[in-house]
Each structure stands twice: as structure tokens, then as C-alpha cells.
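User: two proteins, same treatment. go.

Assistant:
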Amino acid sequence: MEQVSELRYAPMGHAAHRYVVKRQQAKDKKKGLLWRYHVVITNDQRRSAKKLMKWALGRCTMENLIKEHKHDVGFEKMPTRRFHANWAWLLISQLAWNLMAWFKRRCLPDPCRSLTLGSLRQRLLNVTEKIVHQARQLFLVLSDDNLFQDWWSFALKRLAQLNPISP
């Protein structure tokens, strides 16, 4: 259940602002019901409350992607004091992030699409595995204790289904 409403509020001595509030019913860990609130303070008078809330929450998605770039790829600190080395490092890091985003969308199951790069790296890439070459084929051998073997098998099947681009 989701509700959107708006109100005007003016603190003492200040002009009134438009507050758009969305509340959404959710379940907590103990299966009890609770309300989650999102509030936007704006001077936008043109858009309806629902459209404004959708626009504002869409911006949050972009801010979360920027935060993921900064923390999961390591953009918060440059590795050297040389401009061209840092530039190359940023380009390589951006390429790696884009490849993981593509891999996440095209090859992984739906529950993985909302995970950050750091979570995916921890669950899929930082595991005990080895690649075995046998009878002119490559095999990925995972530990029996790996909790994410189904994700790997799903991804490998999806990769096999992709069509290469013809020259």
C-alpha cells in the first residue's frame, strides 16, 4: 500500500515550502507491519505530488550509482600523483564497472540485479574456484561449499546463449 500527499509549512519568519510525502507499508524482520516515509521539500509548483515524488526518487537512484562508483570501484582516492596515470586508472575502472553492470543485467538472475558491485564481487568473484582445461574444453570448478553455485550456472548458461557479433 502506498500513499502520496502534500502540505505547506512555514517555519517562524520564513516563507512556506511545499512538502511532498510518500508513505509505503512494509514488513519488518519480525513480520510486523510498519510505514516507510520519503519526504521531498520543494519549490516546484507545476508537477503533481505523485509525479514529483517519482522524479525525486529517480534522482536517488543516480546518486546511489555515483556512490557505488566512488566506494566499490575506489574512485575516492587516486593511486598516483600523475595526471595521465590517474586518467588511465579511471578509464580502466570505468570499463570494469560497465562490464560488471552489463554482466549483471545480461547474465545473472533477477535477485542479483539490485546488488552493488561490492556485493557481487564478494559473492561471485572472491570465492575458491579453478578453471580446468580438459579435452579441449574449459570448466569452472567451484567449491562444494559455495553458496552461489546456482548463480554461476545461470550466468554460464546465459553467456553460452549470447550470439557473437559477426565481422
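Protein 2:
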Amino acid sequence: MKKSDFDRHLNGGEFARHDIEALSGDGLRVNIVGAGLQGVDLSRLDLSRWRFESCDLAGTSFDRSSLEEAVFVSCRGAASSFVGADMQEAVIEGGDFHNASFLGASLGYLRLLRCKATGANFTDAKTFNIHMEEVKLSMTLMPKASFRKSLLKKIDFTEADLAGCDFREAVFEDSSLRNAILDDCRFEKADLRGADLGGIALRDAARFKGAVISSDQAADLVRQLGLKVE
């Protein structure tokens, strides 16, 4: 969105719920830059198409708010909460959202770009057609998420709980599944040649049935049996 697309612009300062609620109630599209909103309860507000840039959102609650097409750029959102929020077609670009909660959120067509979300909780989130690129998701909880036909470029899933995820026909590029929990995942026709599979035991390799791996990856799995590959 261009600046002319917004009805109001807020720059800097500390804001409380009533400040944001007043603008939300008017149905305005707001561009808010450099604001202090840490720990503020913004739950159940309509913030659709708002843009938050370089804001402090640490511990801020957006629970059950409408955030359709909202944009978060370079924000500090550690331990923020989006439980049950509607974030369809929203964008999170840059910034740090480690330990944030997206429990049960609607994340269809969400764009998650060049940011950190280590330890975040995506349990029961609706993840249809999420686009992710250059995202740190180590130690996240993301069971049963759908990444079918996704391009996963520079995604770090190290030690993440991905049990039951759908990776069918997904393509991994410079990404990591090292020591991730992959119980009951589906990988049919997935291209894993660009994934770090460190920590995956040969006895668990059956879960990758139908996927494509490189000769080097296959050799690494065989070496775990103590066999010499020449």
C-alpha cells in the first residue's frame, strides 16, 4: 500500500487500547510507525488493512482481532499473542516474533518473510497457502500444518514440532529439518535435496517415502548403520 492508501498516520509515541480502539471503531485504515504498544490489549478489534512499522509489540494481545491484509514490518513482537485472530492475507516482514502465539489463528495466504519466530506456537492454526521465505522457526510448535506444494526457501525448522504436517510436493531450498519432530508427516513427491536432514535416523527414513533426496543425503543415512559408502 502507498501512503495515500491510508486514512490516518501515527508516528511514534506510546498508545493505549482506547487510542487504537477509537480509530478502529471508525473503520479507518491506519499507518502506524515507531509506536510503543508493548503489553497493550488489542483483542477483538477490527484492524484490517492496518500497517504497523517498527513498532514495539512485545506482549501485545491481538487475540480474536480482525487483521485481514494487515502488514507488520520490522516490528518487535516477542511473546505477542494472535490467538484466534483472522490474519488471512496478512504480511509479517522482518522483525522478531519469538515465542509469539498464533494458536487457532486463520493464516490463509499469510506471507511470513525474513523474520524470526523461534519458539512460536502455531498449534491448530489454519495454514492454507502460507508463503514463507527466510524465516527462523526453530523450536516452534506447528503440528498438522499444510505446506503442500509450497516453496520453503531458507526456512529453519531445527527442533520444531512438525508432527502430522503435510509436505507433499513441497520444495526445500537451503532449509533445515535438523532434529525436527516429523511423526506422521507426509512427504510424497517432496523435493528434500535442499534440506538439512541432520539427526534423522535411518530407521525413520520410511516417513520420506515418495520424496526425492540427494545421493549425499542417502549416504549420510546409510553411514548411521556403520557402513562405509564409496
